[in-house]
Design goal:
Elements (H helix, E strand, L loop, with lengths): L3 E4 L2 E3 L2 E3 L4 E2 L3 E2 L4 E3 L2 E4 L4 E4 L7 H7 L8 E3 L5 H4 L2 H7 L4 E4 L1 H11 L6 E3 L5 E3 L4 E6 L9 E5 L4 E5 L17 H15 L3 H12 L5 E4 L8 H12 L4 E8 L5 H15 L3 E6 L5 H7 L3 E7 L2 E2 L2 E2 L1 H13 L5 E8 L5 H8 L6 E9 L4 H19 L4
Parallel strand pairs: 8-9, 9-10, 10-11, 15-16, 17-18, 17-19, 19-22, 22-23
Antiparallel strand pairs: 1-2, 2-7, 3-6, 4-5, 7-8, 12-13, 13-14, 14-15, 20-21
Helix pairs in contact: 5-7, 5-9, 6-7, 8-12
This protein binds MU-OXO-diiron.
Length: 391
């Protein structure tokens, strides 16, 4: 991308990764992503906030052409999509001091082989002056690594937030400008990356709320020019509130489990419960993660493969266990051929979920009336349970 001015002496110098479709070889990126970096020229000192994925270092260094000296290379988060170009930047600016949180120091040394003598750690609340501008570092652990922090510039009221409050989106627009597609990218990002740390994020949001913010400048996606939009969205996502909604990830090999899923979905809808179905054979796993942000109940639908769950269902269960949605209830349904142990197998994969298991409806072959009644009873129980939840 280009060097573009945000405020006087503050520039966006990162890059857009239009073609990336997977992050961590796991997370779908339908809209690509960006690796944002910010150059701040103070009256006395010059600082860079975050670098870019090393695959883009050449373009990045081009964006920095004309920069004669760099005093501080600030790394808010040590994951390589932001820190990976530190060694190359230090090669160009050997006198720059790397600024990071105390917990980041070892990570930068171990992962990037940075000379420890070049690293200065900053405490929570510590301020570094650039002359007419300054940066206050606020430790915000677990968004999404233990070492993460944000930087606040009081003179311009800009919060540099790195992954926190970011979105995976490649765009030529520098600002969000209320674009709902960016809010969806931010929710996707939250669900896949941040959701396991809801508790810690609540505390970090309180720290952010104490600041007077005009811009939130993350290190992925465009800058939030209406900070309230993303801050209040995060407050909603991490809250205890949930939707009167059942998410049903499922697989069906010959249609029997699929018919059970459809039947249960219709019974839930008739009882005023919203449903979202995800056929795991074809679904975008990120859409499933987003649906789990506020669902009250998860019903897993799996056929039996050699007495266990379908491997794709097992994968989705492991993923749900990792991202720790706030759902309060769960159930398992599915068809089997001659024998099954799917319930014990699946429950063994989702031990992180703090859910009440409302039951399992399993049937040999095609679902017949006794099974259909069990599904109606399950729908009734879910609808009743939802009435008691904070919505
Ligand atoms: Fe964008 Fe956690 O790295």
């Amino acid at each position: 991308m280009l060097k573009r001015e945000i405020r006087k002496g503050i520039y966006s110098v990162g890059v857009q990764d239009w073609g990336r479709r997977l992050f961590d070889s796991l997370i779908p990126l339908p809209d690509g992503t960006s690796y944002n970096s910010y150059l701040i020229e103070g009256s006395e000192k010059t600082a860079l906030i975050d670098t870019v994925d090393p695959a883009f270092v050449e373009e990045y260094l081009n964006n920095l052409q004309g920069l004669e000296k760099l005093d501080y290379l600030i790394t808010l988060h040590s994951e390589q999509d932001h820190s990976g170009s530190i060694p190359m930047v230090l090669k160009k600016f050997p006198n720059a001091q790397v600024i990071c949180s105390p917990k980041a120091k070892d990570l930068i040394i171990e992962h990037l082989l940075v000379d420890p003598a070049k690293i200065r750690t900053v405490d929570d609340g510590e301020v570094i002056s650039l002359g007419d501008k300054s940066l206050r570092f606020i430790h915000t652990p677990w968004v999404h690594w233990p070492e993460t922090m944000v930087a606040y510039m009081p003179e311009t009221k800009i919060l540099f937030s790195c992954d926190f409050l970011g979105s995976h989106a490649a765009t030529s627009e520098m600002y969000v400008k209320g674009d709902p597609a960016i809010m969806e990218s931010a929710k996707r990002y939250y669900s896949e990356i941040m959701m396991p740390f809801k508790g810690q994020i609540k505390g970090n949001l309180k720290k952010v709320r104490e600041l007077d913010i005009e811009l939130v400048a993350p290190s992925h996606g465009p800058i939030w020019d209406i900070p309230e939009d993303i801050i209040s969205a995060y407050e909603d996502w991490v809250s205890d509130k949930m939707e009167n909604k059942v998410v049903i990830p499922y697989i069906s090999m010959h249609g029997s489990t699929g018919k059970m899923v459809d039947y249960l979905a219709k019974e839930l809808i008739q009882r005023g419960v919203k449903v979202e179905l995800f056929d795991l054979a074809v679904t975008d796993i990120g859409k499933l993660a987003m649906a789990l942000v506020d669902a009250a109940t998860i019903v897993i639908g799996s056929p039996t493969v050699h007495v266990g769950p379908h491997p794709v269902v097992a994968y989705a269960a492991i993923l749900a266990n990792a991202i720790k949605p706030k759902a309060r209830h769960a159930a398992i349904i599915g068809s089997y051929g001659w024998a099954t142990q799917v319930v014990d197998s699946i429950l063994g994969l989702v031990k992180n979920l703090k859910v009440e298991v409302l039951g399992a409806v399993l049937c040999k072959g095609e679902a017949k009336e006794p099974t259909l009644k069990e599904l109606r009873d399950l729908a009734e129980l879910i609808a009743e349970k939802h009435k008691a939840l904070p919505m």
